[in-house]
Amino acid sequence: MNRKTVGQSYLSRNVLAVISFSGLFLLLAMYLWAPESEILYDFQKPLIISIFIAICLLGILAAIYPKLCKGLLEFKKFDKKSLDPEKMNNMQFEGHHPDCGKFESHTIIIRGSKYCPGCSGLLIGAIMAVIGILFYYFYGLPLIYGEISFWTGLVMVFLALMLIIFLKLGKKLKIVSNMALVTGSVMILIGLDTVKENLLIESYFLLLVLFFILARIAASENNHEIICRNCEEKSYCIYE
């Protein structure tokens, strides 16, 4: 198996960042110039909202059971004859971070347990998003508030992606930026559905949300990989 290099991870992060930001600008162009839909299907709103809720629920599941995210960090043992068995046996994972002391800046402690601030932010944001989209589905939103929702959400998502992808964030800012990514996304979707009611644009945005998630994962993976590649203990544990 070929090990990924930091350069490959960096390239993947940048490619997904370009797709995400380009997709946001294209969405803005659609919002400004695409006509409102003349045909509103009965299944349209329930379908779009159900898909978005499903995405949020998967995020909630991953945040509650972070071992599902451990694929972000895969640690490969190699050349077992030269490894320290005691160190190998002591290597544990806390969520999707190894308990090696190198990831203290990537974890927060709540009641004696360690949690990932990024995943915690996504969890809180996803819960808020589900509540918000259900409230919108049952009660609706006046047109002017739909406009405000779209523009506010667009700014939130743009800033959140900028912070998450390109900056090294503190724990609190990680929580806030990841919350903003999800809550901003639901605000965009509500704005699109209120103002445009265009199935094609809304479907496009749901696809774009997946690229937001992939870009966020790639940025996290890149940061984690750099830590592991610079680790003095890589003789028994290597990130790949």
Topology at a glance:
Layout: H1 6-33, H2 44-64, E1 75-76, H3 85-90, E2 93-94, E3 97-98, E4 108-110, E5 113-115, H4 117-139, H5 143-166, H6 171-195, H7 199-229, E6 238-239
Antiparallel strand pairs: 1-6, 2-3, 4-5
Helix pairs in contact: 1-5, 1-7, 2-4, 2-7, 4-6, 5-6, 5-7, 6-7
Structural account:
The chain is mainly alpha-helical and 240 residues long. 66% of the residues lie in helices and 6% in strands. The protein has 7 helices and 6 strands, in the order H-H-E-H-E-E-E-E-H-H-H-H-E. The protein has helices at residues 6-33, 44-64, 85-90, 117-139, 143-166, 171-195, 199-229; strands at 75-76, 93-94, 97-98, 108-110, 113-115, 238-239. Strands 1-6 form a two-stranded antiparallel ribbon. Strands 2-3 form a two-stranded antiparallel ribbon. A hairpin with a 2-residue loop joins strand 4 (108-110) and strand 5 (113-115). The radius of gyration is 20 Å and the shape is globular. The chain starts with 5 loop residues before the first helix and ends with a strand. Mean pLDDT is 80; it is low at 72-83 and 85-89.
